[in-house]
Design brief:
alpha/beta; Elongation Factor Tu (Ef-tu), domain 3; Rossmann fold; 467 residues; Four Helix Bundle (Hemerythrin (Met), subunit A)
Length: 467
């Protein structure tokens, strides 16, 4: 949901911050990111090294032993990456501020695929290795594993099946066909999968059950992951809910299928929210207690209220005006996101929005001074949201706004925001900081056009809106 680059602390150019300080901050965050990944990789390697040091490789005498050992190593690596998977989206504030939620989501996706492949490799190599040692077919070995006295085998089978289902539901083709509520419930079973993995790996695992130091180390990894999850996914949101007393104070129909919600409460300035950021919102109304949805702020936070604007694209968002009424209690996790003015390094800026991606751009426009241009892409005139507000803010801040309306299936619409069109609208675009937000397909296409127009990667910040 957030920008593809690192967030920088400090004010925008022109506010007195030396360029050297900005460069130092950028270098610090990159160094911190490298240290984070070195810690993760080193910790994973160390956990396997403990197993090796305790004699985990001593029993590799035959071909079956070698294959089985490969299966055990891939199993431990897969289990470790499953724990990393939980930590990456455990809402740890310092990690999120370091990389941004969008980058964490990318890491989460690739890490999840790697964990899946390793777990599947563990199952295959271990089964084949056992079958070689037992001198029976692989299918006969599978039957033996499930029907004879192999400790924890059914636990492992159920855990692996759940993990595979969760991973498969994350692929785009499956995600588009699942209701959000179904997808959310499937993903929730990932925690059960990891818990079952512990029962298979530690108390009943043939290796770690007898290796005290290694098993204690692995147990500490599971406990630490659980603690982070409980603290940042349960206790922190609960404490904030009690402290801030968030409630919906106003519901406004902005246009066809587009609704704005204003949320008020106590001490909202303590949230330190910024324009361009988003929260995970949970509305405590019938049928929605278990759902949390990411929505960006559509107005710059003022310490008294927070506003979000939602377009009806899914089962929840289409009914939000009917289901969420003034007075509804709200649980909010966040703020998240690095798509803020802190990224700005140049005096001249262009904010590009597509569809409902205008929400964080409208909030950013409220805060940005200097030479700012807004390019707002919409399919139809009725799809343009906040036209009056945008015109008023642009006039007050001396910004320029262009409404680019047209169906991309037509020749005229297809040309909008092409590389040539961008250069016509902004001959100096290569010297501008570019913020881009919208649906994934649109942002991917415009990102390529912006880069082709000469904008360096470090000056391009992208946030993708997806259902």
């Amino acid at each position: 949901m957030t920008d593809a680059g690192f967030a920088l602390a400090g004010p925008a150019p022109g506010s007195g911050t030396p360029l050297g300080r900005l460069a130092a901050s950028r270098a610090y965050r990159r160094a911190t990111a490298w240290l984070l990944w070195l810690f993760i990789l080193g910790n994973g390697a160390g956990s396997i090294a403990l197993w090796v040091d305790a004699g985990g490789l001593d029993a590799t005498r035959s071909a079956g032993d070698i294959v089985t050992t490969i299966g055990r190593v891939t199993g431990m690596a897969g289990a470790y990456l499953a724990l990393v998977q939980v930590v990456l989206l455990a809402r740890l504030p310092w990690i999120e501020r370091l990389a941004g939620f969008d980058r964490l989501t990318v890491w989460h996706r690739w890490n999840g695929k790697s964990a899946l492949y390793l777990v599947v490799a563990h199952v295959i190599f271990t089964t084949v290795g056992y079958s070689l040692n037992d001198q029976i077919s692989v299918w006969a070995e599978v039957q033996a594993l499930l029907t004879t006295n192999y400790p924890g085998m059914w636990t492992a089978t159920i855990g692996t099946a759940l993990f595979v289902v969760v991973a498969c539901s994350s692929y785009a083709i499956a995600r588009r066909r699942l209701r959000y509520e179904v997808w959310y419930c499937i993903h929730f079973t990932a925690y059960a999968s990891i818990a079952l993995a512990w029962f298979h790996q530690i108390p009943t695992g043939s290796d770690l059950a007898t290796l005290t130091v290694a098993s204690d180390y692995w147990t500490s990894l599971y406990i630490a992951t659980l603690a982070l999850l409980v603290v940042f996914r349960v206790l922190v949101p609960l404490a904030r809910t009690l402290a801030h007393g968030l409630r919906v104070s106003e519901v406004v129909q902005e246009g066809p299928g587009v609704v704005s919600l204003t949320i008020t409460g106590r001490y909202l300035g303590a949230l330190h929210a910024q324009a361009g950021q988003f929260f995970l919102w949970r509305f405590l109304t019938r049928g929605h207690w278990l759902e949390s949805h990411p929505f960006s702020l559509s107005a710059a936070p003022d310490g008294r209220s927070l506003r979000i604007t939602v377009k009806g694209m899914g089962n929840f968002t289409r009914k939000i005006a009917q289901d969420v009424r003034p007075g509804t209690r709200v649980v909010a996790e966040g703020p998240f996101g690095a798509f803020t003015t802190a990224l700005r390094r140049r005096d001249r800026v262009v904010l590009i929005a597509g569809g409902i991606g205008i929400t964080p751009v409208r909030a950013l426009l409220e805060e940005m001074g200097g030479d700012v241009v807004v390019l707002y892409r919409a399919m139809r005139d009725e799809d343009v949201v906040f036209r009056d507000e945008l015109d008023r803010i642009a006039a007050a801040r001396g910004a320029r706004i262009e409404y680019l309306v047209g169906d991309h299936a037509t020749p005229e619409g297809a040309r909008l925001l092409s590389t040539e069109h961008l250069c016509e609208l902004l001959p100096d675009i290569a010297e501008r900081e570019v913020y881009l937000c919208g649906p994934p397909a649109m942002t991917d296409a415009i990102e390529q056009n912006v880069r082709a127009a000469g904008v360096p990667r470090r000056a391009l910040h992208v946030e993708r809106f997806a259902i």
